[in-house]
Amino acid sequence: MRNSELISIKKIIIHHNLDETFIENLESYQLISFVEDDTDKYLPEEQLPVLEQIIRLHFDLKINLEGIDVITHMIQRMENMQQTIQQLENKLKLYE
Question: I need a labelling partner for 93 at 20 to 30 A (CA). Which of 1, 51, 59, 77 fits?
């Protein structure tokens, strides 16, 4: 993975005014996975929208990390079901 596709956790903490323990908790709940090197942790760019959604849920709606874990799993299941529905609709159109 190229460095241009990675965002430093330090920059995210500063930009969103986060506590470092919040980031560590996200990692311990496996809500976000980070890339580590010798000096720092990085967030893959494609995970940034997920992180920002978690930040909004936690700080704006006051949802704890356990609740966020449930919500993110439900969102993932809904997206998977939506993909399945789309695939089935496409197959159905073939027979029409």
Answer: 77
- Tokens 């995210």 locate to 12
Assign 3-state DSSP to the chain and report helix, strand, coil percentages, each to 5.
70, 10, 20
d(CA 69, CA 54): 9
pTM above threshold 0.90:
no
Supply 87's token pair.
Answer: 């695939």
The structural domains of the chain, ordered by start, are: 3-95 (1.10.1660.10)
Contact 38/72 with Cβ under 8 angstroms? no
Burial environment of residue 68 by CB neighbours within 10 A (0 to 12, 13 to 18, 19 or more):
buried
